[in-house]
Amino acid sequence: DAGVIQSPRHEVTEMGQEVTLRCKPISGHNSLFWYRQTMMRGLELLIYFNNNVPIDDSGMPEDRFSAKMPNASFSTLKIQPSEPRDSAVYFCASSLKRGLGELFFGEGSRLTVL
Amino acid sequence: AQSVAQPEDQVNVAEGNPLTVKCTYSVSGNPYLFWYVQYPNRGLQFLLKYITGDNLVKGSYGFEAEFNKSQTSFHLKKPSALVSDSALYFCAVDTGTASKLTFGTGTRLQVTL
């Protein structure tokens, strides 16, 4: 299995631009999670999906952030417009069994907003 | 609200010596506890978990953790550290119903020769 695949691995953009991060979960996994990691705030859960349905988006910082999961094999996290404080590593993770199963993380997308 | 505390930012240990990385938790209800490891520029990798049963849990790469309900702790241990164990270690807690893993701030383990 290829594991969780995220793209791009690195993104540098100007403030105000739209950023789209992509994730392909492990085939057969039915839960998908988006996390953000920064030095200041550590690892934060932004949103998670179960069977392609958003279950909890209380961690999404503000309306500039949105996430979609149109099918079981693809999810996007969009930031529009981006701001320098959005600079972070964004991780996607998937799991087979909600609640009891371990999460499998992608390699992350490092976002730098200038 | 559930929370996890990792009181040490960094733990230093010599190769061959035992290591302990500390974790305490706070939840309402029964905790599901996890340890993850992160190598530089990589995603987190699952090490082990406690859901129920034996308080001593064995995981990958020779790591183990002991669940202590009275002290609300779940410390990670290894009898003999390796230089290759050097990484960032995260403790996490969930109650199973919310499916929201709450991670600690991480502890950097540095193993030297």
How would you explain this protein's 3D organization?
The complex is a heterodimer of chains A (114) and B (113). By secondary structure, chain A is mainly beta. Helices cover 0% and strands 54% of the residues of chain A. Chain A is built from no helices and 11 strands. Chain A has strands at 5-7, 10-13, 19-24, 31-38, 42-50, 53-56, 65-71, 74-79, 88-95, 104-105, 109-113. Chain B is mainly beta and 113 residues long. The mean pLDDT of chain B is 92. The chains are: A mainly beta (114), B mainly beta (113). Chain A binds chain B through residues 4, 31, 33, 42-43, 45, 48, 50, 55-56, 91, 93, 98-100, 102-108, and chain B through 32, 34, 36, 41-46, 49, 51, 90, 94, 96-106.
Name some characteristics of this structure.
heterodimer, A: 114 residues, mainly beta, seven-stranded mixed beta sheet, four-stranded antiparallel beta sheet, 54% strand, globular, B: 113 residues, 0% helix
Oligomeric category: heterodimer
Major sheet details of chain A: 7 strands, mixed
Query: Helix fraction of chain B?
Result: under 10%
Low-confidence residue ranges of chain A: none
Report Rg of chain B.
13 Å
Count of separate DSSP helical elements of chain B: 0
Strand composition percent of chain A? over 45%
Strand content of chain B: over 45%
Distance between the terminal alpha carbons of chain A, to the nearest Å? 36 Å
Counted beta strands of chain B? 12
Approximate shape of chain A: globular
The helix/strand class of chain A is mainly beta
How are the SSEs placed, and which strands pair?
The complex is a heterodimer of chains A (114) and B (113).
Chain A: E1 5-7, E2 10-13, E3 19-24, E4 31-38, E5 42-50, E6 53-56, E7 65-71, E8 74-79, E9 88-95, E10 104-105, E11 109-113
Parallel strand pairs in A: 2-11
Antiparallel strand pairs in A: 1-3, 3-8, 4-5, 4-9, 5-6, 7-8, 9-10, 9-11
Chain B: E1 3-5, E2 10-14, E3 19-21, E4 24-26, E5 32-38, E6 44-50, E7 56-58, E8 64-68, E9 73-78, E10 87-94, E11 102-103, E12 107-112
Parallel strand pairs in B: 2-12
Antiparallel strand pairs in B: 1-4, 3-9, 5-6, 5-10, 7-8, 8-9, 10-11, 10-12
